[in-house]
Specification:
The protein is mainly α. The chain has helices at 13-37, 41-56, 61-64, 75-96, 101-112, 118-139, 144-155, 161-171, 177-195, 198-202. The protein has a single domain (13-202), classed as Glycerol uptake facilitator protein, CATH 1.20.1080. Helix 2 packs across helix 7 (144-155).
Length: 204
């Protein structure tokens, strides 16, 4: 009697991509309101985007990269999340650019203020630290890390790579500082994970 061939496992990538697109859209909503109304209310309302990401289980690079080792995320999966977040985020920004000319002008001014410098890199690292802590605190059962952490990084001028790519889309432009921002966010998230044994605490 012939042996049955083992059933092939369904690919994880369609779901991975879908959840990554969803995350870009949710962060896009936060970025749009920030560009639309500015401070002080904009940074506070931006937190709605990350709350949505965490509650719905969407895939946001800056919410995942610090948990690379803790959650045993495959590097190729994390890279996929990043690339989809960037591509979808830019397209979301382009779509938003049709909504309000004032938002487009605000986005262009913001992109023009970015540069490739140590200051920009450090501000990206600091954003990565806050993002890791915000998600870690949410995993502990409290939304306060998000509610306070998101306005904190915005008020301080720290740089978030997915929000930045959305802003570029709204401005219909491109700036290579996005690569510095990605590296800084990644470094900051992993640094605070290494310095503070949050993983062990979360599993208790």
């Amino acid at each position: 009697m012939a042996k049955k061939k083992p059933a092939k496992k369904a690919s994880i990538y369609p779901e991975l991509i879908k959840k990554s697109v969803a995350a870009s859209l949710l962060i896009g909503l936060g970025d749009y309101v920030l560009l639309k109304i500015g401070s002080p209310l904009g940074p506070i309302l931006f937190a709605f985007g990350l709350l949505g990401v965490c509650v719905m289980g969407a895939n946001l690079f800056t919410g995942k990269c610090g948990f690379l080792f803790e959650d045993k995320i495959k590097p190729l999966h994390l890279l996929t999340i990043l690339l989809v977040n960037l591509a979808a985020g830019y397209l979301v920004g382009l779509a938003f650019s049709a909504c309000d000319g004032a938002v487009v002008e605000a986005a262009r001014a913001k992109v023009e203020s970015w540069d490739i410098s140590w200051s920009f890199f450090i501000r990206s690292i600091l954003c990565g630290i806050i993002m890791y802590l915000a998600v870690a605190i949410y995993r502990k059962g409290s939304p306060l890390g998000i509610i306070f952490g998101i306005p904190l990084f915005i008020f301080c001028g720290f740089q978030h790579c997915i929000a930045n790519i959305i802003t570029m889309g709204v401005a219909a432009t491109w700036d290579w500082s996005i690569l510095v921002c990605v590296l800084g966010n990644f470094a900051g998230s992993l640094m605070v994970w290494w310095l503070l044994p949050m993983g062990a605490k979360l599993k208790k």
